[in-house]
Design brief:
Bound molecules: NADP nicotinamide-adenine-dinucleotide phosphate
Helix content: 25-40%
Number of strands: 13
Distance between the termini: 32 Å
Radius of gyration: 18 Å
Largest sheet: 7 strands, parallel
């Protein structure tokens, strides 16, 4: 599949929070400061080039966090250096919750610490208001089910003050989403979901019914592309790559789905955005639709310790 003339706009669009128009193909910035969980460190010039090329390719939704940092590099600083002053239509989504202690380890921010986290993002990104802030809780093994009311109320107060336009929740269950919605509107949910990890399908459907964007993390599996016969077969049929097949499947899975694949390379960025123009057939979707029918061998290494997400 030639990707020369395909831009993110080919993926269609979504109105985030009802008023921010974004292409459904976006970009996740977590892989820019470091390619893996503990390195190797990213290359600053390449990271800046990737961000600028993403915008050239029509990406207008970039996902970041203060805690996406490694050594001297941080995603927020790279985004600001590459793109500020920002194009009018660019939506930058960030997350608060995890925070770095003095030894660099991540812990969970309490309600009173979330103002500083939001203000930190504003300063790092050079913004007066953040478009979308997710409250992110727990590890990557799925939602913990903890009560989030106090923390979400703290963010809702910052939204009322005008520091944040829209709120989201990340790594949350349906019950936690409902708890948040008692406090303030939720514009987006960011949970783990991909061809190979489809357990969150119920929450995806809740989001689609309520016009909440569902923005999966690890859209390409997170730990290296899977080696699965069915995915390989669909990719071969369309003469596209496994990554493009996985992204096209996500976008076809629900109109509420927004893709934010992360990469540290220009070649993968172009390949990923190129999948915005790929349309899978109903047979392809049936073939890829059932997690329990996939025989996935993920070749990528598992993280040596809890990844910093
Ligand atoms: N809310 C949360 O808890 C949470 C957790 C994790 C991530 N996130 C967000 O979600 C975004 C997406 O997740 P992710 O970046 O971890 O995972 P991902 O998109 O599933 O996978 C990224 C990995 O796949 C590789 N890759 C990317 N494009 C590729 C291609 N075309 N061919 C082969 N390999 C490719 C990347 O390596 P290369 O650098 O070599 O391309 C990187 O190792 C993140 O960037 C971050 O913004 C959120």
């Amino acid at each position: 599949m030639t990707t020369d003339h395909i831009t993110a706009t080919a993926s269609g669009h979504w109105m985030l929070g009802g008023d921010l128009r974004v292409s459904r193909m976006g970009f996740g910035a977590m892989r820019l400061p470091a390619r893996g969980w503990n390195g190797p460190a990213g290359d600053r010039d390449t990271a800046l080039a990737v961000l600028r090329r993403a915008v050239e390719l029509g990406v207008d939704h970039i996902d970041t966090a203060s805690f996406y940092a490694h050594g001297d590099l941080s995603a927020n600083e790279l985004i600001r250096s590459a793109l500020h002053p920002y194009p009018d239509q660019l939506v930058i989504a960030t997350k608060v919750g995890p925070q770095r202690g003095s030894e660099g380890r991540l812990s969970e921010a309490g309600p009173s610490e979330l103002r500083a986290a939001v203000e930190g993002n504003l300063t790092e990104l050079g913004l007066d208001r953040l478009d979308l802030v997710y409250l992110r809780v727990g590890g990557i093994d799925g939602p913990t089910g903890d009560r989030i009311g106090e923390r979400f109320s703290a963010l809702a107060a910052l939204r009322d003050e005008g520091l944040v336009r829209h709120l989201g929740v990340s790594n949350m269950s349906a019950e936690q989403l409902a708890e948040a919605q008692q406090i303030a509107p939720v514009a987006a949910v960011q949970n783990r979901f991909s061809v190979t990890v489809q357990e969150d399908v119920e929450l995806l459907e809740i989001c689609a019914r309520q016009n909440i964007a569902y923005v999966p993390f690890f859209p390409l599996g997170g730990f290296g592309l899977p080696d699965d016969d069915r995915i390989n077969r669909v990719a071969e049929r369309h003469r596209v790559t496994v990554a493009q097949t996985m992204l096209a499947w996500l976008l076809a899975r629900s109109p509420a789905m927004l893709a934010i694949p992360g990469t540290s390379t220009l070649a993968h960025l172009e390949e990923n955005v190129g999948s915005a123009g790929l349309r899978l057939s109903p047979e392809d979707l049936t073939e890829l639709g059932r997690r329990d029918q996939l025989s996935v061998h993920a070749p990528g290494r598992q993280p040596a310790q809890e990844p910093e997400v």
